[in-house]
Protein: Chemotaxis protein
Amino acid sequence: MNVSLDADVLARRSQSLFDAHQLALSRRTDRMFAVLMGLQWVGGLVVALALSPRTWSGTSSQVHPHVWAAAGLGGLLASLPMAMAWALPGREATRFVIATAQALVSGLLIHLTDGRIETHFHIFGTLALLAMYRDARVLFLYSALVAADHLLRGHYWPLSIFGVESASAWRAWEHIGWVVFENVFLLIGGRGAVKDARALAARQAWLELSQGEVRTRVVEPLVDSARALTEATHSLVSSTDDQRAMLSRQSAALSDTQVATNEMQRASSTASRQADAILASTLQAGDVGADAEAMLGQSMEGLEAIRAQVMEMAGLLRGLDGQARQLSSVTLAVKDLADQSHMVAVNAAIEAARAGAHGKGFAVVATEMRRLAQQSVRAAGQVSGILDTVHRSLQHVVELSLKGADRMARDLEVVRTSGERLRGLSTVLRTSTEGVQQISVAVASQAAGVARISSAVDELSAMMKQTLGRVEQTTTAAQTLRVVTGRVHGVIDTYQGTRTDEPPPANEAGRVIAFRRDA
Structure:
């Protein structure tokens, strides 16, 4: 995204950030020198007490003036810059006073050590510390005071500055040359540091000013989008929770439906098998009924034939009985003839007896005739008895035949009624067979329908499980989206929280730049 900024505004903000950076640096350096002043005062006092605590005049001694100088003058030199460093940090007057006091402290320490060359390195260390101000005037002031101290004391009191009674003027200029040499590099370094600080301030100013443009063109729409996304996420999470609850209830209902359909399928299968068994039994019963009906028809025909034969036999028996009666009358006639023959034979015997000898042959004939007549009478009596027996038997048989015919007629009526009922039963069985067939077809269709329903419920249950899995994934995605949205809000809040009315210190510019590049 291209961001265009006003050059004057950018320059003013860059200068403001640079000044703030320099002010913060000066304050930190002032406080550092305040601490250093105190340490130098204590260090000078320790050095004085260690090197020359007392001075002797014959057998009497007293505190060495170095000790008094370290305690009094050192405390005086340290007190003012320490007070200004804590009360007025960052001011130009404060660092000028610190540079002046530091030059006097360097001269005091060199004096306390009787001009030892090692103490002169305090000057170079001080220059390095003063360079932290990045102010060439401070270095020039300190260097000028040190140069004046070397020249004046080298000429009037060389023992105090160089530790010798007399010293060449060139020696002071040699020390001054080394100070100038160090100042050259410190100034070069300070100039580069100032240049870097200005570049960093310009970059930070550009970032801060572009932040407003970015906020207007990116952050604010992003905040609105994040807010809308948060609301949509909450709505999505709520909706997915409701859907998951509803789908869980539907899944439970589908599970119950699946159990019910499985039960229905088993019941339908059992009903189908039972319907098939009933249909087979009904068909078998229909076949048996048809066979029984045919057998009853044949039985009725046979019974009708037997009844007709019995009636015909009864008629024949009646005719035979009549003939037997006729034969009985013939027998009676034969008996009468035999009786008459007997009477004739008796009469002939009587006549033969009267005839005497002439009638002996006739008597024999008469005797044989009487005997034959008697036998005929006896035979006629036997035949008559037999005929009576036959008559009675024939009458009994006729009566039995008639009774049998009547009973057979009644049985035929019963059989005819049974046949009618059996025909009705056969009709009912045929109707029942058709109904059972329809029931079997319906049960088979129901079993197929239940099987399809069970298959559909299984597929629906699988789809419901997949839907629940997808809803869980949606819920997880919504939760992730909520977390990401929260992070976006956090980044936006952090991004907005970094902008303050006071510019950040210069040493934090790099961190701010790095953060904003990440943001």
